[in-house]
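Continuing the batch. This is chain 6 of the set; chains 1 through 5 are on the previous pages. Same settings as before, nothing changed between runs. Recording input and output for traceability.
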Amino acid sequence: MLFVINQHAGNGKGLRTWQLIESRMQQLEIEYTSCVTATPEEAEMHVSAHLTKYPRSTIVVLGGDGTIHRLLPILAGTQAALGVIPAGSGNDTARGFHIPTEPLQALHTIIHGQRNAVDLIEINDKWTLTALATGFDAEVAEAVNQSRYKRWCNQLRIGSAAYLIGAVIAMFTFKPARASITINGTIHHFDNVWLTAIANSSSYGGGIRISPQADPHDGELDICIVHSCTRWTLMKLFPTVFSGKHVNLPYVSMLRGHDVHITSSNARVAYGDGERIGTTPLQAAIGRHKLLMLQPSSSHHYESKIV
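Output for chain 6:
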């Protein structure tokens, strides 16, 4: 078992969480190794070297969604299992995959949980675990990642508030555009598209339940398109996304499929797992059961069958 600690996650939360976890591991007398990393490249190097010796090992990430995202190319399609102890600002991986946010409970899941084979999203030859965002929501992520208020929100332990601030700012600056979305070969045209989200799990952006029915075990992607509405209407919609009630609104289209292609009249930035991955046009497809993840034993059971 290798613990990968992102020392910058959550403005130092990764290191603080590791002190608690390390103490408990020593009490339990369970063998492990660990590495404290300052950059994604350093984390990738340690994980690659560890899996060369122990290909069926468990890689436990103490960090945020971005740290997990960077390790997906190394873990996808292998017999290594991903364990998550949330220590970031959004922590949508933990939320979407039913992993406890309390560190010691998350550790209990890693030690006693189930190895489930979960789906990934393949986007322009890159992997994403939770969701892909284009349009308004991606612009929010871009603003938050470049902001100073994200750091302050993390220090106050209200990381999700950073995304709320970013959304309010983008509400007055973002301009919708036309988009064509092809799902399983069928083309759908939309005017005044504010956002298109391709979801593998139910939430993103620090707790926004963009696709409440999304299931990372079912081999399907859930696509949410918000379109043909005014800025004022979008402002009224925004509070409903935290409960998932937006899916019933007339200017929200919910579609499903295993292959998605997006083009737009204006180039749109795209974010996967809260990390910038490119711009439209983009191609996304389901990666069926490509990753082993440690989840609570009550979650779906797809024991270590990687496709």
